[in-house]
Amino acid sequence: MAASNSSKLFRLGRSLVGGLSNNCLGTIRSSCEMMCNDFLSQQQRTFIQMRTNLKVVDNSGAKRVMCIQALKGKKGARLGDTIVASVKEAQLGGKVKKGEVHYAVVVRAAMQRGRCDGSEVKFDDNAVVLINKQGEPIGTRVFGPVPHELRKKKHVKILSLAEHIA
Prior knowledge:
Belongs to the universal ribosomal protein uL14 family. GO terms for molecular function: large ribosomal subunit rRNA binding; structural constituent of ribosome. One of its GO terms (biological process) is translation. By secondary structure, this protein is α+β, with helices and mostly antiparallel strands. It has two domains: about 1-45; about 55-165, CATH 2.40.150.20. The protein is about 30% helix and about 30% strand. The chain has two helices and nine strands; from the N terminus they run αββββββββαβ. The strands form three sheets. It has a five-stranded mixed beta barrel with strand order 1-2-3-4-7. β8 (about 140-145), α2 and β9 (about 160-165) form a beta-alpha-beta unit. The chain is globular and about 45 Å long.
């Protein structure tokens, strides 16, 4: 009789431990997945470097450009920096054509940038405005939000054309 009670207790204890271990493994698995997702989201938020595809947010006629060279910094370009870009997609009848090389100013970047007041600004996409050699925008309108940090980088004309300043 004592042997049968001990075997029942052993089975009960084993099932409890098994349930706990499965529960612990699930918790460990979910925390590992969360860390991996955080790592991937941080990994996607990098500098704008060579061969990065960017959205064009002005009415110059270009839709998408590819970064050829960041003009400042070894790692790449950030918010407000000037890059050299090649037009990959363009609208018919626009001011710029596919395959042309232009300067561009980064007006939205997925990488976060700290502000003086301690807050940080980051956007969902990477976007540029095409400019000429004198630093004036080629288009006459700028779509979407543009950060006010461009004022420090002497791109006041882009700020004046923007519909929303963030």
